[in-house]
Amino acid sequence: MKLTTILFDIFLLAVIILAATFYKWIFSYLISAIVLSYILSPSVSWLERKRVPRWLSVVLIYLSTAGVIVWFAYRMLPDLISQGETLMNMINSDQAPANSMLSIPIFKSLSGSVLKLDQQIPMLNLVDNFDRLIESSKVFLSSIPKLLITNYQVVLSAVSFVATIPLISFFLLKDGNKLVKDFYKIIPNRYFELSIIIINKINETVGNFLRAMFFEIIAVTIMASIALSIIGVKNSILIGLCAGVANVIPYFGPFIGTAIAITTTLIDGNTSMLPILNIIFAMYIVQVIDNNIVYPVVVGTTINMHPLIVLLTVLAGGWYGGIIWMLISVPLVYLIYSVVKVLYVNLKKFQLI
């Protein structure tokens, strides 16, 4: 009997390894769908408690979410398309760089400064170097549409990724409880109680954290958009959204949002100090409200990580996977730490380690 058990365990392990190897390419899909499921789960459960069938609850939440997304797209897309067309027309114009790229106010200001400095130090040949830099920038920006067409497989993969995640999440929300119950059936009796405790604790920890981060992003986005609109910054909603997403990086995220707002203002031609100081003050007020009201209420406890660990984690995330991983690296590391902590405490409690 013991030999049979060992052989079965070996067989089960082999099946798990083969399955992991076969499905490894969709892990990113599954993880993203799980995150979306955690965020939407409380709303689905609330409707279910109101005697709405679970499948219908999921459909209603999906329709509501889609409606909000469509509304935001309707409000923001016209401006974004207009700005994109203006930029592409400028980039693809037949004019020389000095007449196209230099039509942007910030480049006009830089060109004037370079010209004055070149007159004072002719040997540096600054004007020619500056023109070459502008020309290189124009060539790079002009190549973006061609790159998108050439790498159409990447674009199609991204579209497939975005379209597939809600579908996977739908089934996780609809049948997640059944999947968990089926998983419990294969757990040996001696580990049954421990498994339930650990899974519930992990589910609670991960779910609360992801939902808290999501709601904080929304809160910071709204506050930053309102604050920037009040002081007259263009594209305040889009900049506010960038600030909200960047805010998931502790310590450094607020600086990223502020830098984006300042850069947009400079490109728009407001090179005086007053608009920049207004942006800094407005974003500071947003952070004061976030740190003293929103974060304690929504998140409850701060991510207890030293700033140096946060910096190293962000740098490692950027090196591994670019901007996306820079944003998710700190929350991901904290979640892994929380899960390991839950496992350690409960395994210690049941004297298994």
Question: What's the number of helices?
Answer: 12
Helix content: over 70%
Terminal Cα span: 26 Å
Gyration radius, to the nearest Å? Answer: 26 Å
Coarse morphology? elongated
* Structural domains: how many: 2
The secondary-structure class comes to mainly alpha
Q: Write down how many β-strands occur, each being a DSSP E stretch of 2 or more residues.
A: 0
Task: Please mark out the parts with pLDDT under 50 across 5 or more consecutive residues, or reply none.
Answer: none
Mean pLDDT: 75
- H-E order: HHHHHHHHHHHH
Biggest β-sheet: count, sense, barrel?
Answer: none
Strand content: under 5%
Could you characterize what this model shows?
With 353 residues, the chain is mostly helical. It folds into two domains: 1-108 and 135-186, no CATH class; 193-353. 84% of the residues lie in helices and 0% in strands. The chain has twelve helices and no strands. The protein has helices spanning 2-23, 27-49, 54-91, 97-100, 105-120, 126-150, 152-185, 192-230, 236-246, 253-267, 273-298, 307-349. The longest helix has 43 residues, at 307-349. It is elongated. The chain starts with a helix and ends with a helix. The model has no long low-confidence stretch (mean pLDDT 75).
